[in-house]
C-alpha cells in the first residue's frame, strides 16, 4: 500500500540572514503539517517572516536548516508541483487573457488541442471565458487576479501558495474575490497555504489559521476555524466570527513589539 503523505510538511524550519556585522534570525524552528485539501492561512505582525516562509516552501528562497516537503518530496527549488500566486497579477500586457493562461502550457510543449481544452476549462472555472480576447489593461484588478489564478491552475500544481493575492484590491473587490476563491478552491480541491495580514480574511477563508510571532517567527498559536462550508459574506456579521477575529488580534498585538533576535555579531578588526 502506498503511503499517503500530507500536502505540505515543514519540520524545524529555520532561516537566518547574515550581514557583515550580524546574523538575524527570520524564522526559528517552525514545524507545520498541512493535510490534503485544506485551506491554511498564516497571519503575523508586519515583517515577521510569513512571506519568507511561503517563499521557502515555494523553493524561491533557500532555507538555513530544516525540511520542507510537498507530498513527501523534499523541496529544494521551484517546481510545477507548487503554484505560486503573488499580490500583483504579473500578466503579460501584450497577451490577451487566453494566451496568458496558455503561455505556461506552451512552454511545457502541451499539444494545441489539449492546451486549448485546459485553458477553456480554467477560464470557465474563474468565470472569465467571455473575456478571453481582452488584454489585461482592459480588466479590473480582481479580474486580473482571476486570470493569474487560472494560469496557475492550468499547470495542475499539487498545492497552491498565495502571498497576499488580494492585498492591492479595494475592500469591496477583495470581499468578492474571497468568495470567488472559496468557490474555485472547493471545485479544484487543491491544498492552499495563504499568507495575509488581514485577520478577517484569514478567518473567513480558512480551515486553520496559523499565527506567527514577531521576528524571529515561531508559531504562537494554531487555530481551527469551525464554521461550516460553503461560506458567504454574512459570516462577517456573526458573533462567532468576531470572537475568532479578536482572539487572533490579541495574539498579534501581544507579539508586535517583540525585539529582533541577533544570533551573533562580527567585530571588524
From TrEMBL:
Residues 8-239 form the ABC transporter domain. The keyword Nucleotide-binding applies. Keywords: ATP-binding, Nucleotide-binding, Translocase, Transport. Pfam families: ABC_tran. The keyword Transport applies. GO terms for molecular function: ATP binding. InterPro entries: AAA+_ATPase, ABC_transporter-like_ATP-bd, ABC_transporter-like_CS, ABC_transporter_ATP-bind, P-loop_NTPase. PROSITE patterns: ABC_TRANSPORTER_1, ABC_TRANSPORTER_2. Coiled coil: none annotated. This is ABC transporter ATP-binding protein. It comes from Neobacillus driksii. The lineage of its organism: Bacteria, Bacillati, Bacillota, Bacilli, Bacillales.
Amino acid at each position: 500500500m502506498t503511503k499517503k503523505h500530507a500536502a505540505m510538511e515543514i519540520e524545524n524550519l529555520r532561516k537566518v540572514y547574515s550581514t557583515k556585522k550580524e546574523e538575524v534570525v527570520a524564522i526559528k524552528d517552525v514545524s507545520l503539517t498541512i493535510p490534503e485539501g485544506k485551506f491554511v492561512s498564516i497571519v503575523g505582525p508586519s515583517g515577521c517572516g510569513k512571506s519568507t516562509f511561503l517563499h521557502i516552501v515555494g523553493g524561491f528562497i533557500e532555507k538555513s536548516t530544516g525540511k520542507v516537503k510537498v507530498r513527501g518530496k523534499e523541496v529544494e527549488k521551484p517546481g510545477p508541483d507548487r503554484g505560486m500566486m503573488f499580490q500583483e497579477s504579473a500578466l503579460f500586457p501584450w497577451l490577451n487573457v487566453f494566451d496568458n493562461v496558455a503561455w505556461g502550457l506552451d512552454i511545457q510543449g502541451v499539444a494545441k488541442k489539449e492546451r486549448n481544452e485546459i485553458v477553456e476549462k480554467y477560464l470557465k472555472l474563474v468565470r472569465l471565458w467571455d473575456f478571453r480576447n481582452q488584454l489585461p489593461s482592459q480588466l479590473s484588478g480582481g479580474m486580473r487576479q482571476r486570470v493569474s489564478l487560472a494560469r496557475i491552475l492550468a499547470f495542475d500544481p499539487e498545492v497552491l501558495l498565495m502571498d497576499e493575492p488580494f492585498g492591492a484590491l479595494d475592500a469591496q473587490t477583495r470581499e468578492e474575490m474571497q468568495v470567488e476563491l472559496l468557490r474555485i478552491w472547493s471545485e479544484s480541491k487543491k491544498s492552499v497555504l495563504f499568507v495575509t495580514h488581514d485577520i478577517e480574511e484569514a478567518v473567513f477563508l480558512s480551515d486553520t489559521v496559523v499565527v506567527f510571532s514577531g521576528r524571529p517567527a515561531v508559531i504562537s498559536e494554531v487555530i481551527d476555524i469551525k464554521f461550516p462550508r460553503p461560506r458567504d459574506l454574512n459570516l462577517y456579521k456573526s458573533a462567532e466570527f468576531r470572537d475568532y477575529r479578536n482572539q487572533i488580534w490579541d495574539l498579534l498585538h501581544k507579539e508586535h513589539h517583540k525585539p529582533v533576535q541577533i544570533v551573533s555579531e562580527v567585530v571588524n578588526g
